[in-house]
C-alpha cells in the first residue's frame, strides 16, 4: 500500500516549500525522491526522501522526474537548462514550478508566496472590508502549487512510460489559485453577489445566511446552512425562537446580503453561551453544518482523524512531534 | 523553448491532450471537489463518463434559474444546465442517465465499471453499500479498478456522517484558526472554499499516481480521501512549530517573522503587497508618501528591485493580460447558454494548457451512445428509457 509509484525516481531541487511539497507527495505514493540539497531535512516536508550531495546531472540519467521551483537564473547557475535537459534526457519529465509562470510578460519577475495570493484574486477575498487584505500564512499558494506539481508529474510519467517521451510541465502558483477563485467565484457570479472580502463571512453569506465563522464561548465555530431543511434544523437547534417567524427573517437572500449583521446579532447570544464542543455535539444531534475552529494544539485530539490514524509521529530535537500523515486510507484490490 | 503549440487569438497556447487516451473514468459525483477531479482527468485525455439520474442529481443541477438566463430556455432545462459552477466543475465529460436504484440500472452500472480504469465518487458515506455496491465488491469484480472516494471526513468513523461544507472542514483541520490580523483574532478565509478545491487537485494527484500501481491483472485500489485531512496536510509546518515552541500558533497578520512584508493602500484605492522594504527606510517613506496609483507604485518598487504585487480582484484577474496571454481562460460554446468562459486547468504541458473539450454535457446527453458501446441495441435502449432505467 501507499506504493503505487514505486520504481519511479524523482530528483527534487527545491528552493521553497513548493518543490519540497511536490516531492513529499510523490514520496507519499512510493516514488523514490532524492533531494539535492545541502540543507538539513525538514521534519515534515522531507519525510520519506533520500538526501544526496551529488550533483543534479549525476542523478538525472537514472531519473524519471526533475522537479524544481528554482528561478531560471538559479537553474542556469546549476547548468540546468530545461530545453537542453529535454534533449539530453528525452524520457525525463521536467517539472518547473514558479509563482507567476515562466513565459509571458511576468516571466522572470522576482515573486513568491505573496505574489501568488495577490495576483490570483485570492488575497482580495480575505480580511475585513475596511482593512487591508489578509494573507493566508504557511504557504497556501506554494502548497497548492506543490499538489499540482505532483499531480502533473504523475500524469507526465504515465505518458512518458507509455509513449517513450518525457515532457515539460510548467505551472504557476498564481494561476492555480486564480483557477480556484474563478471556479468557486462562479457561485457568486451566478447569484450576482459581489466578490469582496467580508471578514468572517463569505461575500453576501454566499446567498443564504449563515455562511462563515462565528464567535462562541471559547473560540469560534464555522456555521453554514445551504438548504431549507438545514435552516429549519438550525432554528430547531436554537429552540425555535419567535423572531424566526417574522417575515423579515424568512427572506434568506435578504438576510444574507442586506442585513446579515442584524441576523448575526439575534443568534450571537446563544452561541456566546456555549463552548465549541457543546456546539459540535448539538450540530451532531440536529444535523446542522457547524463545527469548531480548531487550534493547532487540538488537532491530534480530533476523534475522527484519530479514528483513521491520520497523524504520524517523527523525531524532533531529541523528542517527538506529531505531524499530518497521508490524508487517505488505501486498500488494495485482492490479488 | 516550449515547442510550437497552436496559439489562439486573445489566448495562450491550448492543446488537445492525449496523455490519458484509452483510459475510462466513471464518476458519480456532486458539488465541486470530486467533479473537478474528473474534469482534470478528462482534459488530460481520459474518457470521463458522469453517471447521473433524476433520482440522484448533482447539486449543481438543481439551481433556481438566475436573471441572466431567464427566458432562454424552459425552467427545467435552466435548473439542470444553467449554473455556472457546473460548467467549471464538469466540463469536458460525457453524461449518462442511469438509475442505480433500479436492479437493471445497477447491472448496467456494473457492466460499465467493468470497462473502467477509475471510479470517482463523493456522495455521503454508505450510499454505495445501500445499493449493494460496496467498494470491496467492486474491487473483487475488477481488481484493476482505481476507486477515489472523496468525502468530508472519510468513509468510516465517529464523525463520518457529519455535514461537510468547505469552511467546516478547513475549520476542523486547523487552517481557519491560523488566519487573522496581528491582533491574533481569528478571521479565516471561509469565502474561498479551499477545502473543496484542495481536494479536487489532491484527488487528481492520487488517481494519477494510482495508475502506476496497476499490473496486467490487478493493482487496483480504494483511495478513501478525507477532505478535512487533506486540509490538515497543509498545516504540517504549524504542527512542527507547535512541537518546537510549545505554544499553539495563531494569526499574525501579513508580516513575516522578519517583519518586512505588508499590504499597503495605493492612491487610487487599490492595494499592493510589498516585500523586503524596511518600514523605517527613507525609500519606504518616499515611495508611499508620493500618493502613487497602484500600477505606478508597483512599477516604482520593482524598478528599485523590491518585490511588489498588485492585489487583483477576481474581475481584474479575468481581464488581466498576464493571465490571458498564458491561456488561463477559454471560450466554449454551450448548446443552450451560448458562449461560456471557462477557467483552464492551469497545467502547461509541453507548452500548452489542456483544451476545455466542451462545457458540462447536457444532462444525459451521451446515454444512448454509451449504452450502444455496452452492446445494447436501439430497441433495448428504448425499452430501458420507457422503464425509467435510463432516467
Automatic annotation (TrEMBL), chain A:
Keywords: Transferase. It holds the Pfam family CoA_transf_3. GO terms for molecular function: transferase activity. Belongs to the CoA-transferase III family. This is Succinyl-CoA---D-citramalate CoA-transferase.
From TrEMBL, chain B:
It comes from the Bacteria. It holds the Pfam family CoA_transf_3. Keywords: Transferase. GO terms for molecular function: transferase activity. The keyword Transferase applies. InterPro entries: CoA-transferase_III, CoA-Trfase_fam_III, CoA-Trfase_III_dom3_sf, CoA-Trfase_III_dom_1_sf. This is Formyl-CoA transferase. PANTHER family: ALPHA-METHYLACYL-COA RACEMASE, SUCCINYL-COA--D-CITRAMALATE COA-TRANSFERASE.
Amino acid at each position: 500500500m501507499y506504493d503505487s509509484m514505486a520504481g519511479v525516481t524523482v530528483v527534487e531541487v527545491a528552493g521553497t516549500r513548493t518543490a519540497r511539497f511536490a516531492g513529499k507527495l510523490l514520496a507519499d505514493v512510493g516514488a523514490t525522491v532524492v533531494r539535492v540539497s545541502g540543507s538539513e531535512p525538514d521534519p515534515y516536508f522531507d519525510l520519506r526522501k533520500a538526501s544526496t550531495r551529488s550533483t543534479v546531472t549525476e542523478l538525472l540519467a537514472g531519473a524519471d522526474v526533475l522537479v524544481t521551483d528554482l528561478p531560471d537564473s538559479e537553474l542556469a547557475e546549476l547548468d540546468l537548462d530545461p530545453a537542453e535537459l529535454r534533449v539530453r534526457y528525452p524520457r525525463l519529465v521536467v517539472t518547473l514550478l514558479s509563482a507567476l509562470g515562466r513565459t509571458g510578460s511576468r516571466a522572470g519577475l522576482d515573486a513568491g508566496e505573496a505574489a501568488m495570493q495577490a495576483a490570483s484574486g485570492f488575497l482580495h477575498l480575505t480580511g475585513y472590508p475596511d482593512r487591508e487584505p489578509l494573507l493566508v500564512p504557511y504557504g497556501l499558494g506554494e502548497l497548492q502549487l506543490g499538489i499540482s506539481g505532483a499531480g502533473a508529474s504523475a500524469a507526465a510519467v504515465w505518458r512518458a512510460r507509455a509513449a517513450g517521451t518525457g515532457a515539460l510541465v510548467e505551472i504557476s502558483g498564481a494561476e492555480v489559485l486564480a483557477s480556484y477563485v474563478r471556479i468557486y467565484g462562479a457561485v457568486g457570479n451566478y447569484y450576482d453577489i459581489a466578490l469582496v472580502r467580508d471578514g468572517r463571512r463569505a461575500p453576501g453569506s454566499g446567498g443564504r445566511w449563515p455562511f462563515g465563522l462565528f464567535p462562541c464561548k471559547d473560540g469560534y465555530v464555522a456555521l453554514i446552512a445551504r438548504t431549507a431543511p438545514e435552516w429549519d434544523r438550525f432554528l430547531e437547534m436554537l429552540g425555535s425562537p419567535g423572531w424566526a417567524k417574522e417575515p423579515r427573517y424568512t427572506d434568506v437572500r435578504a438576510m444574507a446580503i442586506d442585513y446579515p449583521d442584524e441576523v448575526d446579532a439575534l443568534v450571537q447570544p446563544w452561541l456566546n453561551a456555549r463552548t465549541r464542543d457543546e456546539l459540535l455535539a448539538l450540530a451532531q444531534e440536529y444535523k446542522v453544518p457547524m463545527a469548531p475552529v480548531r487550534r493547532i494544539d487540538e488537532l491530534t485530539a480530533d476523534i475522527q482523524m484519530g479514528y483513521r490514524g491520520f497523524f504520524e509521529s517523527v523525531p524532533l530535537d531529541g523528542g517527538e512531534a506529531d505531524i499530518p500523515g497521508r490524508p487517505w486510507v488505501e486498500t488494495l484490490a485482492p490479488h | 523553448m516550449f515547442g510550437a503549440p497552436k496559439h489562439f487569438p486573445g489566448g495562450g497556447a491550448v492543446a488537445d491532450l492525449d496523455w490519458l487516451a484509452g483510459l475510462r473514468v466513471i464518476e458519480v459525483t456532486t458539488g465541486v471537489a470530486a467533479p473537478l477531479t474528473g474534469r482534470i482527468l478528462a482534459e488530460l485525455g481520459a474518457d470521463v463518463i458522469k453517471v447521473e439520474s433524476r433520482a440522484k442529481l448533482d447539486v449543481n443541477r438543481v439551481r433556481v434559474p438566475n436573471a441572466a438566463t431567464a427566458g432562454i430556455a424552459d425552467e427545467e432545462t435552466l435548473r439542470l444546465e444553467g449554473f455556472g459552477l457546473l460548467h467549471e466543475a464538469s466540463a469536458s465529460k460525457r453524461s449518462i442517465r442511469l438509475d442505480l436504484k433500479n436492479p437493471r440500472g445497477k447491472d448496467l452500472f456494473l457492466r460499465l465499471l467493468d470497462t473502467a480504469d477509475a471510479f470517482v465518487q463523493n456522495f455521503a458515506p454508505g450510499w454505495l453499500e445501500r445499493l449493494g455496491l460496496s467498494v470491496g465488491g467492486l474491487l473483487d469484480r475488477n481488481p484493476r479498478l482505481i476507486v477515489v472516494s472523496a468525502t468530508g471526513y472519510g468513509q468510516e468513523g465517529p464523525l463520518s456522517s457529519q455535514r461537510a461544507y468547505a469552511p467546516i472542514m478547513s475549520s476542523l483541520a486547523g487552517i481557519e484558526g491560523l488566519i487573522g490580523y496581528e491582533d491574533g483574532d481569528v478571521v479565516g478565509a471561509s469565502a474561498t472554499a479551499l477545502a473543496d478545491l484542495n481536494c479536487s487537485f489532491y484527488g487528481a494527484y492520487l488517481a494519477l499516481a494510482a495508475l502506476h500501481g496497476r499490473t496486467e491483472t490487478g493493482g487496483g485500489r480504494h483511495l478513501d480521501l478525507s477532505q478535512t485531512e487533506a486540509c490538515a496536510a497543509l498545516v504540517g509546518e504549524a504542527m512542527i512549530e507547535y512541537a518546537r515552541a510549545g505554544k499553539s500558533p495563531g494569526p499574525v497578520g501579513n508580516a513575516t517573522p522578519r517583519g518586512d512584508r505588508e499590504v499597503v493602500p495605493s492612491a487610487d484605492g487599490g492595494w499592493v503587497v510589498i516585500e523586503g522594504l524596511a518600514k523605517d527606510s527613507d525609500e519606504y517613506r518616499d515611495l508611499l508618501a508620493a500618493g502613487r496609483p497602484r500600477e505606478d507604485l508597483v512599477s516604482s518598487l520593482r524598478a528599485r528591485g523590491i518585490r511588489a504585487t498588485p492585489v487583483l480582484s477576481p474581475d481584474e484577474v479575468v481581464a488581466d493580460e498576464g493571465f490571458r496571454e498564458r491561456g488561463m481562460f477559454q471560450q466554449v460554446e454551450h448548446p443552450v447558454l451560448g458562449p461560456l468562459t471557462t477557467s483552464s486547468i492551469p497545467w502547461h504541458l509541453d507548452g500548452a494548457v489542456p483544451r476545455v473539450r466542451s462545457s458540462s454535457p447536457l444532462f444525459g446527453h451521451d446515454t444512448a451512445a454509451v449504452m450502444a458501446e455496452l452492446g445494447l441495441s436501439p430497441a433495448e435502449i428504448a425499452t430501458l428509457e420507457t422503464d425509467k432505467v435510463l432516467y
